[in-house]
UniProtKB/TrEMBL annotation:
It comes from Perkinsus olseni (Perkinsus atlanticus). The lineage of its organism: Eukaryota, Sar, Alveolata, Perkinsozoa, Perkinsea. SUPFAM superfamilies: ATPase domain of HSP90 chaperone/DNA topoisomerase II/histidine kinase (SSF55874), Ribosomal protein S5 domain 2-like (SSF54211). The keyword Mitochondrion does not apply. InterPro entries: HATPase_C_sf, MutL/Mlh/Pms-like, Ribosomal_Su5_D2-typ_SF, Ribsml_uS5_D2-typ_fold_subgr. This is DNA mismatch repair protein. GO terms for cellular component: MutLalpha complex.
Length: 185
């Protein structure tokens, strides 16, 4: 309790359709919470965004994110078969964005004379500005501000926030976008 583990982590069986509830995430860190989030709605918007990113990557698993104070789901993806990622992306991103996605084929890369290897797959959007709605929240895929566009990177099954990598993707992609628009990858 009070932020300390109550025991060692161990695998636990769960039935299909398991529901995980998160409440009062920052109960013992009020100062940290104030520095991270301005309001509860901002905190919740970040949670919805995070769940959306995982739903896009783990598209065979169904995800739903709903605020306990409201009845309707703010983000919902049905899950699907291994070949149905695009169907799930329609639920996660909305039809307007999903129809503009360009699939990057699975590509194997070798760097340093074959010393390093990687496999890359993903989706990009073309240069049209796109706005979509999830629940009552408005999301702009391309941002004219300095924050950059919407870029999600998973490596070895883990969400990665790597500023130099995002910048490299954004700089490369920016050459092909209309002036002032940011990438969505």
């Amino acid at each position: 309790m009070d932020g300390e583990p109550v025991g060692a982590a161990q695998p636990t069986a769960a039935t299909p359709g398991t529901t995980i509830h998160f409440t009062d995430l920052f109960y013992n860190l009020p100062t940290r919470r104030r520095s991270l989030m301005n309001t509860q709605s901002e905190e919740y918007a970040r949670i919805v965004d995070l769940v959306s990113r995982f739903a896009a990557e783990y598209y065979t698993i169904a995800f739903t994110c709903r605020n306990a104070r409201h009845g309707s789901a703010d983000m919902s993806s049905p899950g699907g078969e291994a070949d149905e990622q695009m169907k799930v992306l329609h639920f996660v991103l909305g039809d307007r964005v999903a129809k503009d996605l360009i699939t990057l084929p699975d590509t194997d890369l070798e760097v340093g004379g074959g010393a390093y290897a990687a496999s890359v797959r993903g989706f990009l959007t073309h240069g049209n500005s796109a706005t979509y709605y999830r629940g009552s929240q408005r999301h702009t895929v391309y941002s004219g501000g300095s924050t950059g566009g919407w870029c999600t990177i998973f490596m070895n099954g883990r969400l990665v926030e790597c500023t130099p990598l995002r910048k490299a993707i954004g700089d490369t992609y920016a050459r092909y976008l209309p002036k002032g628009q940011k990438p969505a990858a």
